[in-house]
Design a protein that fits this description.
Length: 457
């Protein structure tokens, strides 16, 4: 009987983690599909359009990661108030978060208005710049809506209600797909706007999502007692600064991690339209694959945190190992898909034979980093469950910017290996991050177990 208990408990942990992760994965996939839609529509419009959207998307998301991460301070704040029985304080905090979101959105709007001036000094190919600028000038109008949407989303997530985020994420695609196609190709009497049309369509989608979420929060019985929109509160310094103190380090960390892929895209933009178009296809597919371990990592954070709160050192390791098992299983599937079906996947994006051939070859590199990518994000999630975030931030910086980026830039640009050299850098950076972060978690959890044995717990 005793011999059967650990496997039974572990199987239960795997099931619990999978159930918890499922809605998180679905929500992330809805976000990832927006990039797929943009890339697919742009790719069928032309190689230059796809390249412009690739560069424009990179310049949009690199600064966007800072306000996105900063607003991540809202879920734990809301959750703590809810757990402490101070639900009357959630509404005032939320209204201050809306002010913060609006300010961040306006700052980013101004940044995107002038970001196009940096394309030439960055060495972006001349034939890519006009479309990239048009995309940025279109999508910038949706940025304030996106930051407000994130504030509403994080409020709902902090109250353990993720269904609206999932539904509105997929609902946004119902706006983006037809509108993006019409504006890109110039149908139904609209002018053909190319990459700029996709930027405008994305902005319209963001406002539709924000208005829908605000309507839901105002009318849903679940949130009625919080009186979220009960009155007008002017911006107040202390609560906004408190959110910034908690959120800015998260924002910097998120930007540093995601920046590896975005800067890689910008560097490949120096090589011309064909390489950057192929890279955009491959990185979009890899990003969709990444949504699964990302959701598993968030679930692992919760499970590890719960075990730590119970004082169960064995539970901490069991929760993390369950996450590792699930991540390895899902990454095996994605790696197999990329190895076997890379040509079929690329065909969904483009009919250009040269772009398709290069993109298909890059997907083989993507298959190679599925396992280290899953392990590094899962390890980071487990460490967050232990409230260990500062040192992992520096370990990630070392892996991505001390190893991955220098190696990729050296091979891709200086030695002339092109996009394939840059992708070798991505593989190296992710592999080093996986090794360092997994090692840190194993050591930290072993110390917890040793302390529990010593204390007799």
């Amino acid at each position: 009987m005793t011999a059967q208990t650990p496997p039974t408990r572990f199987a239960g942990e795997v099931r619990a983690s999978a159930v918890l992760a499922a809605p998180l994965i679905a929500g992330h996939l809805s976000t990832g599909l927006i990039g797929f839609v943009d890339s697919a529509i742009a790719g069928h419009h032309g190689t230059a359009t796809l390249a412009a959207v690739a560069v424009g998307t990179a310049l949009f998301w690199l600064p966007m990661m800072v306000p996105m991460g900063t607003l991540m301070s809202l879920p734990p704040s809301v959750s703590q108030l809810d757990g402490a029985g101070r639900r009357d304080a959630i509404g005032p905090l939320f209204r201050q978060a809306l002010w913060l979101a609006l300010m961040l959105g306006l700052v980013l709007f101004a940044f995107l208005s002038f970001a196009g001036l940096a394309l030439a000094p960055m060495g972006i190919a001349a034939d890519v710049r006009p479309g990239a600028i048009a995309f940025l000038h279109g999508i910038r109008w949706g940025v304030p809506a996106l930051t407000l949407y994130l504030a509403m989303r994080y409020l709902s997530d902090g109250l353990h209600w993720t269904l609206p985020t999932m539904l509105l994420g997929f609902g946004g695609l119902l706006v983006l797909v037809p509108l993006g196609y019409v504006l890109t190709f110039g149908l139904l009497g609209f002018p053909e706007l190319g990459a700029g049309g996709l930027g405008i369509a994305s902005a319209v989608m963001m406002w539709a999502q924000a208005l829908a979420f605000a309507t839901y929060l105002a009318r849903a019985r679940r949130f009625a007692s919080l009186r979220l929109f009960a009155g007008f509160d002017p911006p107040r310094r202390e609560p906004i600064l408190a959110l910034l103190r908690t959120g800015l380090p998260i924002g910097v960390t998120v930007a540093m991690e995601g920046g590896l892929f975005i800067v890689t895209a910008l560097l490949i933009g120096r090589l011309g339209a064909l390489p950057v178009a192929a890279h955009q296809i491959a990185i979009n597919v890899a990003s969709l694959c990444f949504m699964v371990p990302l959701g598993l990592a968030e679930a692992t954070t919760v499970r590890v945190g719960h075990a730590l709160g119970r004082g169960s050192a064995h539970g901490v390791r069991r929760a993390a190992f369950a996450g590792y098992v699930l991540a390895l299983a899902t990454q095996s599937l994605s790696a197999g898909l990329l190895l076997v079906g890379h040509d079929a996947v690329v065909a969904l994006y483009t009919r250009d034979a040269a772009v398709a051939a290069l993109a298909a070859s890059l997907l083989l590199y993507a298959a190679a980093f599925q396992f280290p990518d899953g392990i590094q994000v899962l390890s980071a999630g487990a460490l967050r469950g232990l409230r260990d975030t500062r040192v992992p931030m520096f370990l990630a910086a070392l892996a991505y910017w001390g190893v991955g980026m220098p190696l990729g830039a050296g091979l891709g640009l200086w030695l002339g290996w092109g996009p394939k050299g840059m992708w070798i850098g991505l593989i190296a950076g992710l592999s080093v991050a996986a090794l360092l972060l997994a090692r840190r978690f194993l050591r930290a959890s072993a110390r917890l177990r040793g302390a529990a044995v010593t204390s007799g717990a």
